[in-house]
Amino acid sequence: MTPSSDHARGTSPTLDVAAYARSLDCVHCGLCLPTCPTWQVTTLETESPRGRVYLMRALAEGRVADANAIRPFLDHCLDCRACETACPSGVRYGELLESTRAAIERAAPRRGLAAWLVRTLLWHVVARQGRLRAAFAGLRAAELLGLRWLATRTRLLPAAMAALAPRVPPGRERRPLPTGLHQPPAGVARRGVRVALFTGCVMEPLFGRVHRATLQVLLANGFEVLVPAAQRCCGALLVHSGRPDRARELARANVAAFAEADIVVDNAAGCGCAMAEYGHLLGDAAGAAFARKRRDICTFLAQAGLSAEPAECRAKAAYDDPCHLCHGQGIRREPRELLARVPGLEIVPHARPEECCGSAGIYNLLQPDLAAAIGRRKADSLVAAGVDLVLTGNPGCMLQIDSHLRRIGHQRPVRHPIELLVPAR
Question: pLDDT tens for residues 226-247?
């Protein structure tokens, strides 16, 4: 059976032929179920990868007439890709899910204020760095005026959402990296390698310290660093929301902005995973070429080797694998190898290092109950490990883990691994 003929006439939100063919790789063995965060919470077949593949296939074959009947189950998926790691058949579940979400959104766009607000924020604010900076400046002013406290006390802002909302750093910490070419300091042996640094969208205003640490580590280790002024958001949140058309605009802008770079490094797992799939997203040679030259910062440094010794950090730390790093990109060993170079740092294992924390872009805002259950499980695992410090390589994960540790009264610093690789001054 092939996708329904209605799809060709544009009246039914079904999968394209390639995506449908990928759905046939699933043999419904069920090995994905225990790895799926939503199945762990609900134990419902429709909240598992296997169940969702069955629903998406039924939509493609015309056995489901109303896409809205299955849409909630697809919305509940975090797109964490853990099922891809577990799958013995090599099902490319992420591509299948994103293709289906896009098909449904094209045929039956979401209605209502919430849907309009998400589309507006993702495209007109998050995807435009200048507006995003202005938005965070406004949020910072609101915090200083006590409006967050007032909104929580008057219940205009639900307590659960207030707990998730990050504290906006002061202006000096939100400042963007200077664009252009940065040279290693005098006295540092140069590698003869120039890398271009991708800065993304929310990492800058929320975790500017991570960008500054990334730049400092690269320069201290002898690399020239280019920060292109014309770069844009990676487009991951738009792809996950069923808007690959918008994401392609951003991807093409990034391909052009980094055209002269031989190596592009990034420090956010979600961004890196999205850019690694630009060949698939854009469907052209330029997108594929960009994907081949991008590197996760830990992978790049582990392969190149550190020439500058990290500063001492005497602490017990747990490293938590971001989903889009371990499952999406297959990167597990490199961050741990680099952290082993930090004097005084003891890496302590915990029970759930590769399970999703429940952040998944803006999932924790759109699906707060499921995200809270998943986040609590992650926080409990980290607390049980008895660590002083939590390390992870994605801004959403950093926010979610910090939020849930605070909610259970066990606050620990949550840092990016690159922050511990900064050399002693």
Answer: 999 999 999 999 999 999 999 9
Using a 10 angstrom Cβ sphere, with 0-12 exposed, 13-18 middle and 19 or more buried, the burial of residue 410 is: middle
Q: What is the dihedral of CA 29, 32, 34, 39, to 10 degrees?
A: -100
Q: Burial letters for 326-347: b for 16+ Cβ neighbours within 10 Å, e otherwise?
A: bbbbebeebbbebbeebeebeb
Closest by Cα among 53, 67, 68 to 6: 67
- Lookup: tokens for 149: 């406290």
| Alpha carbons 377 and 380: distance in angstroms, whole number | 5
389: which 2 tokens?
């410090």
374: region left, alpha or beta (phi > 0 left; psi from -120 to 50 alpha): alpha
56-101 per-position pLDDT tens digit: 998 888 888 888 899 999 999 999 999 999 999 999 999 999 999 9
Residue 297 to residues 47, 231, 250, 327, 394: CA-CA distances in angstroms? 34, 17, 21, 17, 12
Q: How do strand 194-197 and strand 264-266 relate by DSSP bridges? A: parallel
The identity of residue 124, as a single letter, is H
- With beta carbons less than 8 A apart as the criterion, state whether 387 and 316 touch: yes
Identity of the residue numbered 140: R
pTM over 0.85: yes
Beta strands (DSSP E) in 8-101 are none
For tokens 């965070």, the residue is 136
Pure H helices in 265-367: 269-276, 278-282, 285-293, 297-304, 323-326, 333-339, 363-366
The identity of residue 412, as a single letter, is R
Tokens coding 381:
């695992």
Cα-Cα-Cα-Cα torsion 37, 41, 45, 49, nearest 10 degrees, comes to: -10
CA distance 264 to 208: 19
β-pair partners for 227 = 180
